[in-house]
Write a structure and sequence with these properties.
The complex is a heterodimer. Chain A is an all-alpha fold. Chain A has a domain of 189 residues: Orthogonal Bundle (MetI-like fold). Chain A is built from 15 helices and no strands. The longest helix of chain A is centred in the N-terminal third of the chain and has 36 residues. By secondary structure, chain B is an all-alpha fold. Chain B has a domain of 140 residues: MetI-like fold, CATH 1.10.3720.10. Classes of the chains: A mainly alpha, B mainly alpha. The interface between A and B is large, with 45 and 42 residues.
């Protein structure tokens, strides 16, 4: 458990730093906090409301005290209230999270389903034509921003072929296919932009694994290539991929924000842009906080998974 | 010239990354023909962007409602016109100005801070290392597009704010590479020799380590440039970038996207220019990394 303890001690200060940074954003702004929160709303002149906000946020207290109170509320799931729409922010987020999580899970699954077989193939045939072609296509995908990929997919599948809807969302009670139809293009756009990174990481590790003695032994025993690749070589080659998976969550969230806005899916990313347009400071702050916490949480999960899957990391951590 | 052509045939036009196995070839041939195509493209774009006011381009903002959606290669408009008849070529060139201004500033600021933090972390290790890694991991917790977007929202969409924001979120990868290379070189004999001669820590870092650490980081700067261009494009596309009427590639793509069914070229011209620019930067970065890779150049 030495490894996990080390990681946990590292992630705790990270957690406090990111939450503090998100919290302090509103205070760093030039001008009065209340003015900022109310933006250009006509309610900004209402002294009653201004006093209410000052009491709600405890603006008479110092920054650090307010941070502790805010964090305490946050942990209990209370993110305060948007003064622009008057709704509870936690309710707003709760409505949006399912769409975002569904899109995230679908895109990751798609990316892995494409990247793992291609990565194995690339490593198995390294520096042969197949590998070169896969690398070249991956290079091209890396150079295409997610929003351009999304546009190309919309143009091909929604405009030219008219197979899938270009935008919109259908909740699950409209039927499974109706719901899925709106997710396929955003899934392809986000998933495809993740593929090259996963592919490259897996390919490098797999090439190293394939040079191990036990692979030569398995070959000598006459096992089939498929069996060796998937049963012997894949698992020990997955560890860097798992770490990268955690680190890529940030990129993934960026992709979600872009895709949700292009495809008009009502998720967190759409809410973020809508809130920026409405100058709803507290909602923007809440979304930034939540996504940073999600990043830290997912990376902690990855670390735990890592320690469980690979007994070697603990020995290595104790050795140092 | 004959030698160049012969070498190109021998090595293939993609260049040869494994040249240490064959006879020595000068690096400018080793990088391959595609590398020089990419350099040429970047020079072309930069040249047009820098001298846009002198060169005979149309006004990127002047509209001409008789000339809506002119196709590519039409008379007077090499790349066609957009929905209100503005010349696409001049808009692409003026859009390049924004992208290049960001690309030639933010990654270098990231590089400077990344070097300071990464080299300190790799040289002193211990507490300094822990503090730096907490700092960089905290930056990574904010997805870069979301981070830049929020900073622009809070501090205003101006060029200096955007440069600072992009530079800030570009720090973590620079730190990682600077740290790893510092650790690698700090163990080497020439560093020991300097220390034995009584050189101070600062002197060792600046005089002995910096020249070795900075070379592998130059390719990272090129990747940083392409990331900066992508982020600017995405923000402009989402409508949270610079305020109108500044033409940027992202905004041109967004404008064209509304009419994609009618005139796809209005979207795909700026998208293609952006694609080629990012591809060139990545390709040059990739080749430079292959040339400067510590593992392949004999340690």
């Amino acid at each position: 458990m030495a490894y996990l303890r080390k990681r946990l001690f590292h992630l705790i200060p990270v957690f406090f730093l990111v939450t503090f940074a998100s919290f302090a954003l509103v205070d760093l702004l030039p001008g009065d906090v209340v003015d900022t929160i109310l933006a250009d709303d006509e309610a900004a002149d209402d002294p009653e409301l201004r006093r209410q906000i000052e009491i709600d946020l405890g603006l008479d207290k110092p920054l650090v005290v307010r941070y502790v109170i805010w964090l305490g509320n946050l942990v209990q799931g209370d993110l305060g209230r948007s003064y622009i729409t008057g709704k509870k922010i936690s309710d707003l987020l709760a409505q949006r999270i399912p769409v975002t999580v569904q899109l995230m899970v679908m895109s990751l699954t798609f990316a892995l389903l494409l990247a793992i077989p291609l990565g194995i193939l690339s490593a198995f045939r390294s520096n042969r034509p197949v590998d070169r072609w896969i690398s070249a296509v991956a290079f091209g995908i890396v150079a295409t921003p997610t929003f351009v990929t999304a546009i190309v997919f919309i143009w091909v599948f929604a405009v030219l072929l008219q197979l899938l809807p270009a935008a919109g969302h259908a909740p699950l009670f409209f039927g499974f296919w109706e719901n899925m139809k709106h997710f396929i293009l955003p899934m392809l756009a986000i998933g495809l932009s993740e593929v090259p990174i996963f592919l490259r990481v897996l390919r490098v590790d797999m090439i190293t694994t394939l040079q191990e003695d036990y692979i030569a032994l398995a070959k000598a025993k006459g096992m089939s290539n498929m069996y060796i690749l998937f049963r012997h070589a894949l698992r020990p080659s997955l560890f860097t991929l798992i770490t990268v998976l955690g680190l890529q969550v940030g990129r993934l969230i960026s992709g979600l924000v872009i895709s949700e806005n292009i495809f008009a899916l009502p998720g967190i990313g759409k809410l973020l842009i809508d809130s920026i347009d409405a100058r709803d400071v507290l909602v923007v702050q809440a979304i930034v906080t939540i996504s940073a916490i999600a990043y830290v949480g997912i990376n902690l999960t990855v670390d735990i998974l890592y320690a469980v899957l690979d007994p070697r990391v603990n020995r290595r951590a104790e050795g140092h | 010239m004959v030698e160049l052509v012969r070498n190109m045939f021998r090595l293939g036009w993609r260049g040869n990354r494994y040249s240490h196995k064959s006879t020595p070839v000068p690096w400018w041939i080793r990088v391959g023909f595609v590398f020089w195509l990419c350099v040429g493209w970047l020079f072309l774009i930069s040249f047009c962007a820098i001298f846009a006011d002198i060169l005979p381009f149309d006004d990127p903002l002047s509209t001409d409602l008789d000339q809506q959606f002119a196709p590519i290669l039409s008379e007077g408009h090499l790349l066609g016109t957009d929905s209100v008849g503005r010349d696409m070529l001049s808009r692409v060139v003026y859009g390049a100005r924004i992208s290049l201004q960001l690309a030639f500033t933010a990654p270098f600021i990231s590089l400077a801070f990344g070097l300071i933090l990464g080299m300190s972390a790799g040289y002193y290790r211990g507490r300094v290392d822990t503090a730096v890694s907490v700092f960089t991991d905290s930056i990574l917790a904010f997805p870069n597009i979301v981070g830049v977007m929020v900073i622009l929202f809070f501090f205003g969409s101006t060029l200096p704010v955007m440069i600072v924001a992009l530079a800030f979120f570009g720090i973590p990868p620079e730190v990682r590479v600077a740290r790893a290379n510092t650790i690698l070189f700090a163990e080497r004999e020439f560093v020991m020799a300097a220390r034995a001669q009584g050189a101070s820590n600062l002197r060792i870092m600046v005089r002995e380590l910096l020249p070795n650490v900075i070379i592998p980081m130059l390719s990272l700067v090129l990747f940083g440039m392409s990331i900066v261009i992508v982020i600017e494009g995405a923000l402009a596309f989402l409508g949270v970038g610079f305020p109108p009427p500044t033409p940027t590639w992202g905004k041109m793509i967004a404008d064209g996207f509304e009419e994609i069914a009618k005139a796809p070229q209005v979207t795909f011209v700026p998208a293609g220019v952006m694609f080629l620019t990012i591809l060139s930067l990545n390709m040059i970065g990739d080749r430079l990394r292959a040339l400067t890779d510590v593992k392949t150049s004999a340690v």
